[in-house]
Design a protein that fits this description.
By secondary structure, the protein is an all-alpha fold. It has a single domain, classed as Amino acid/polyamine transporter I, CATH 1.20.1740.10. The protein has 16 helices and no strands. Helix 2 packs across helix 11, helix 5 packs antiparallel against helix 15 and helix 9 packs across helix 16. The termini are far apart.
C-alpha cells in the first residue's frame, strides 16, 4: 500500500497545503506564547538552546513518529476513531493502554490552555478595557461553558472552528513580531545577560536541562500527526513520502515564525516585563506593548492570544474527550447509541467540573508545562516510537543515528520531570 500511494500522487496539491497549515496551526499556539516569558526571565542562553535543539526536539521526532504510523499494517477500524495507529504494534490491551496514556498525557495540556485563556481574557478586560470587579469564578464558568458548547457540536464543528482561527493567529504573531522591529533594543539582551545570576557550569546545564520540556511542548504537534498519517495512508493520497514532505515544510515555517517571534519579543521588551508576566501567570501577548502607550498592538495582541488559546484548547480537548468516551464505552461494554450518548454527557460534565476547578485555582502554567505536559508528551512523541523501532522487526529500517538521537532527547526531557518530582 505504501508503494502504491507514494507513487500515485507525487505532486503537491492544495490538500497538502491544508495539512501543512494544519500542522503549523496545531504547533504555533498557546505554548509559543510562553516561550518569550520563560526565555526573558531565564536569560538569553535559553534562546541559544532553542536554536540548537529546535531540529532534534521538533522536526526529527515528528518525521520519525509519522514514519512509524505510516508503517502500521493494521487495517482501519471504523469503530475506533481515537487512536487509529500504533495498532499492529500492540495487542488489544496495549491499544487500550495507549488510549489511557494519550488522555493522561494530553488532558493536562487542555488545563494549561484553559488557565491561560481565562487569565488572558481577565487581564484584557481589566487592564485594557478597564472593566473592574470581574469575578474569576463567573468568568471561568462562562468561558468553559462556551468552549464545551462548541465541543458538543461534534468533530466537524470543532475542526471548522479551529480552521477559522489557526491561520489568522499564525499570521498575526508574525505581523506582531514584525511591528516590534522599530522597538528592538539589543541592550535588552546584554542587560538580561548581566542580570542573569552567575552560577557554575553545572548549575547552568541543569537550568538548560529543566527547560527542555517547555521547548518540546512549544514545538509539538503530536496530537495531529495520527490524523495526518491516517489520511496519507489512504490510496492515492501520497503515502509516506508525501506525508514527510508536509511535515518538513510545516516545520520550516514553524521554526522560522517561532524563532522570529521569540527574538522580536526579547529584543523589544525589557526583562522586568517578562518577570511581571511570569509572576502574574500571563503570556507574552498580554503584556507586549504595555509600556509603549496607546497603540493598536496594545489591544490587538491580547485578543490574538485569546483566539490562539481558544484554538489550542479545542484542538486538544476534542481528541481527549473522544478517547475518554471510547475508553468508558469499552470499560462498561456499552453498545447501544443511547448508552454511548449518556456516557459522553457524563464525561463532558466531569471534564467541565475538573477544568473549572483547576482554572479557578490558577496554578502556575509554566510549571505545569515543564513538570507535567512536556515530559508526558515527550514519552508519546519520543520514547514510544523509538522503543517500537528497536523492538519491532517491521520497523528495523528506521533504526539508526536519528532514532537514537530522538530516544536520547526524550530521555533527557522526561528525566527533567523526575528531577522536579524528587
Amino acid at each position: 500500500m505504501t508503494k502504491e500511494t507514494a507513487t500515485s500522487r507525487p505532486q503537491w496539491t492544495p490538500k497538502d497545503t491544508i495539512w501543512m497549515m494544519g500542522v503549523y496551526g496545531a504547533t504555533v499556539g498557546a505554548g509559543t506564547l510562553f516561550l518569550p516569558v520563560e526565555i526573558g526571565t531565564r536569560g538569553p542562553l535559553v534562546f541559544v538552546l532553542l536554536l540548537l535543539l529546535a531540529i532534534p526536539l521538533a522536526l526529527v521526532p515528528h518525521v520519525l513518529i509519522t514514519r512509524v504510523f505510516m508503517r502500521d499494517q493494521q487495517g482501519l477500524d471504523s469503530a475506533d476513531h481515537t487512536l487509529p495507529l500504533f495498532g499492529s504494534f500492540f495487542g488489544a490491551k496495549g491499544r487500550q493502554a495507549m488510549k489511557l496514556f494519550f488522555c493522561v498525557a494530553h488532558y493536562p495540556v487542555t488545563l494549561v490552555y484553559a488557565v491561560s485563556l481565562v487569565n488572558a481574557l481577565s487581564h484584557f478586560l481589566s487592564e485594557r478595557l478597564h472593566i473592574s470587579g470581574i469575578n474569576r469564578g463567573a468568568l471561568t464558568l462562562v468561558v468553559l461553558f462556551i468552549l464545551h458548547l462548541v465541543l458538543s457540536k461534534g468533530r466537524d464543528k470543532v475542526v471548522s472552528t479551529m480552521s477559522a482561527l489557526a491561520l489568522p493567529f499564525a499570521i498575526a504573531i508574525i505581523v506582531i513580531a514584525a511591528t516590534q522591529i522599530p522597538a528592538w533594543d539589543f541592550s535588552n539582551i546584554t542587560h538580561a545577560w548581566q542580570q542573569t545570576p552567575s552560577s557554575s557550569m553545572g548549575n547552568t546545564l541543569k537550568d538548560l536541562w529543566l527547560t527542555l520540556p517547555l521547548i518540546a511542548f512549544s514545538l509539538c504537534s503530536a496530537p495531529l500527526i495520527p490524523a495526518l498519517a491516517s489520511w496519507y495512508r489512504e490510496p492515492g493520497n501520497g503515502g509516506e513520502k508525501q506525508s514527510i514532505r508536509v511535515i518538513r515544510r510545516a516545520y520550516a515555517l514553524i521554526l522560522f515564525s517561532i524563532i522570529f517571534f521569540v527574538l522580536s519579543c526579547i529584543l523589544s521588551t525589557p526583562r522586568e516585563t517578562f518577570e511581571m508576566a511570569k509572576a502574574q501567570n500571563l503570556n507574552v501577548l498580554s503584556v507586549i506593548g504595555g509600556n509603549g502607550g496607546m497603540s493598536a498592538i496594545l489591544y490587538l495582541a491580547p485578543f490574538i492570544a485569546i483566539l490562539g488559546m481558544t484554538k489550542s484548547f479545542l484542538g486538544i480537548s476534542m481528541p481527549v474527550a473522544e478517547t475518554f468516551n471510547a475508553l468508558a464505552s469499552d470499560l462498561f461494554h456499552l453498545k447501544r447509541n443511547s448508552q454511548i450518548k449518556q456516557i459522553k454527557l457524563v464525561i463532558s460534565v466531569l471534564m467541565f467540573i475538573v477544568t473549572s476547578i483547576v482554572v479557578y485555582l490558577n496554578p502556575d502554567v509554566i510549571n505545569m508545562i515543564e513538570t507535567v505536559c512536556g515530559p508526558l508528551i515527550a514519552i508519546f512523541l519520543f520514547i514510544i516510537p523509538t522503543w517500537l523501532i528497536f523492538t519491532r522487526p517491521a520497523l528495523q529500517p528506521l533504526r539508526g543515528a536519528l532514532s537514537v538521537m530522538v530516544m536520547i532527547s526524550g530521555i533527557l526531557t522526561v528525566s527533567a520531570l523526575l528531577y522536579s518530582m524528587f
